[in-house]
Amino acid sequence: MEKKERFQQLNSALAKLSEEQRELLVLSRFQGLKYEEISKINGTTVGVVKVKIHRAINKLREVYFESV
Question: For the chain, which domains are there?
């Protein structure tokens, strides 16, 4: 599979996530923010952020591999 195809599949999988899940993944994985920083932005605890990011990653993995 080409890099361009993988990128398109990733974008497609990200689009299937909820807005909150996308935002959390972008902040944590693409922008490199720490859980503490994200919790301040979202007004939640670090524990809640960790759980939501974990669930978002699992959902992304599920959606991504359905399309492969």
Answer: 3-67 (1.10.10.10)
